[in-house]
Amino acid sequence: MRALLALLLIAVPTAAFAHTGHGDTSGFLHGFMHPVGGIDHILAMVAVGVFAYVLGGKALWLVPLSFVAMMAVGFLLGVGQIEVPFVELGIALSSVVIGGAAALGRPMPVVAASALVGVFAIFHGHAHGAEMPVDASGLEYAAGFIVATALLHVAGIGAAMGVSKLVGKYGRTVAQVAGGVFALGGIGVLAGWL
Fold first, then answer.
1. Is the pTM of this model over 0.85?
2. Residue 6 CB partners (closer than 8 Å, separation 6+)
């Protein structure tokens, strides 16, 4: 595990760290487009939905809700210029860890699963907030990325449920495999392949 972590840290290219200064940060549409315009965000957000599906029960709505809530906290930290270390690395690792947790499919208390996704949500939110103007258009931007994030979570849950209906009793297993694909995608982002 240490060797894998060391390899991942060595492979992290600075080209994948493109959040600050990426353009206009005002308006709902710009906020909405940020999460859906970056593979690192898409992988993590959809992985949260798949992870919630794999856990089932109350986790189906509490885990995505935790992500959105903690992303808002990270956003406020970024707007307040409160430094959070390793933001870009945290964003890149989010799909690796969350997808990996879904792939393992181990039972996990909802509180622990919510805390796991919440930690990574802070990084995502901080990246949005660090470049955010503190005015009405900034609030519109925040609303945009929150709505986009929630929709990506719903897409992950919906896709997992749809596939589950198609394959029957193997649905959870297929969702776990999808989690593994998201984890591999995160490794691809870290390595600069995606």
1. no
2. none
